[in-house]
Specification:
Blueprint (H helix, E strand, L loop, with lengths): L28 H9 L1 H9 L3 E6 L4 E6 L5 E7 L2 E7 L8 E6 L13 H18 L26
Antiparallel strand pairs: 1-2, 2-3, 3-4, 4-5
């Protein structure tokens, strides 16, 4: 684990990284080993501006990535594969959709090759950005229309 003052991988390429988690476990050697183990996942997610954390679940390591707003992506690494879910509690406290899953029939390199996983996260980010931005009216010019003159008293015709 690098200290907070040293540049991390990714920053050397000019991409600012999302901040490290801010909790007491960042100084725990076992957390630091887990963070280093999942650096191939957390660093690209942090390059995309997502804050991340790692945690051991019941049987699997879990990588959390927080999206803008209250949404999150939960990545579970199990049996050499990944299960990635998108959770949107603002829509519904139980809202969860599967983004990517290689845990059903993992290949030998599914755990190490995270490009397809990151592509699924990129697709989610693009969908969320598109849903949040107003549609652009291309080729349409809206001219200002002057307000009609105020009607004077007693000018109504019968």
């Amino acid at each position: 684990m690098t200290s907070r003052q040293e540049p991390e991988a990714g920053q050397q390429q000019g991409r600012p990284l999302a901040p490290l988690p801010d909790h007491r476990n960042v100084f725990d050697p076992s957390w630091q080993r887990a963070w280093a183990r999942f650096g191939h996942v957390t660093t690209p997610l942090r390059e995309r501006g997502l804050s991340c954390d790692v945690q051991y679940g019941l049987d699997d390591w879990i990588v959390y990535a927080w999206l803008p707003g209250h949404d999150s992506v939960v990545l579970v690494g199990r049996q050499n594969g990944w299960l990635a879910t998108h959770q949107a509690p603002a829509e519904s406290p139980t809202s969860m959709s599967v983004l990517y899953d290689t845990t059903v029939s993992p290949g030998p390199d599914d755990f190490a090759d995270v490009e397809p996983l990151l592509s699924a996260v990129d697709a989610l980010l693009a969908r969320l950005a598109h849903a949040q931005s107003p549609p652009a009216a291309r080729g349409v010019h809206v001219a200002e229309v002057p307000a009609p003159p105020a009607a004077g008293r007693g000018t109504r015709s019968r």
